[in-house]
Amino acid sequence: MSSLDSKVVDIHTHMYPPAYVELLESRKTIPLIRRFEGAKDPRYIILPAEAEALDKITASDPNTLPTNLPGRPVTTHYSSLAQKLHFMDTHGIDISVISLANPWLDFVPSETAGETAKSVNSAFSEMCSTAPGRLFFFATLPLTAPPETLLAAIGHIKGLKYCRGVILGTSGLGKGLDDAALIPVFRALAANKLTIFLHPHYGLPSEVWGPRATEEYGHVLPLALGFPMETTIAVARMYLAGVFDAVPDLRMLLAHSGGTLPFLAGRIESCIVHDGHLVREGKVKSTRRTIWQVLKEQVYLDAVIYSDVGLKAAIDASGVDRLMFGTDHPFFPPLNSDEQGEWESMTWNKEAVSKALGADSEAARAVMGGNAVEVLKLYGDD
Ligand code: URA
Ligand code: ZN
Fold first, then answer.
1. Whether 248 contacts 254, CB under 8 Å
2. In this structure, which residue's CA is closest to atom 8 in ligand 1?
């Protein structure tokens, strides 16, 4: 075993380069960053329900600051590299694989998406070079750009020393990730050994949360349930469309321990083999790879599930060697203690790993960092 096997690695941790913050500050519709007179930090507003709250405030007395501002505070944790390194040091994290957070460049006009992606990815590359060996990154693709610009972006990032893959939402080119037009993109990523970090943003339609959600339930339903279901649906659609067979070298790291896939994979299998339409169409061949096989061969899962129960399902589904620790920093900051101190996102996820696998066991060390080092090749010449 090399000493890298005992490193602690955070593979799910976001950064907002200053140019991206400026882009969000210049916007009038979500996603946007808005400063409110009298509030300590600007607010980052991305979810449709938050946009409704924003409209209400805009229509009300501009001199009265409501107690419940929409969105979340944009603290220094979003864009300060010193703050990221402080978070890592406070929590014993040796290496972070940083990525832009949702909704990435999904809202950027086609004509400027290529240039915006280039500047964001160059900013990430630059950030990583200031702490060699401690920072790597997942790049961002200009998905709204014309196909040749999109493929050129992969050409750009494959040459960036600290880039290990791309963070991707579920909308793809606008029709989801089972869109045949994405196959060349998946092939180009796979050919360059760039792992896709699949991350949700859109959740489920607001109606499913009911009329009481916006006023009474905060962000709990969209974040706890909408996000994981979105990931689950996106991967199930890719599987049904045969994307994993079409691009066998494709590797995907799924956020939030795969949504609910580890728990629902059996049900997905049963629904496939009992589907008269699929059977009649000859799509349920005895030689087909089951979703269980894809989970064990092409999928990695992060360990951002906050409990050993979810973690055990993830381990059973994909294998302990395919699970990687993460924090989701700077989201979910502690609300009643100093943000410069310990965050529950670290302690809960770390304790879940210890509880599922035994504190400081070889398997726990692999999940805490060894797997990420191996899979993402988090080493270099410095
Ligand atoms: N985690 C994220 O990455 N994004 C959010 O919007 C909330 C939590
Ligand atoms: Zn995240």
1. no
2. 331
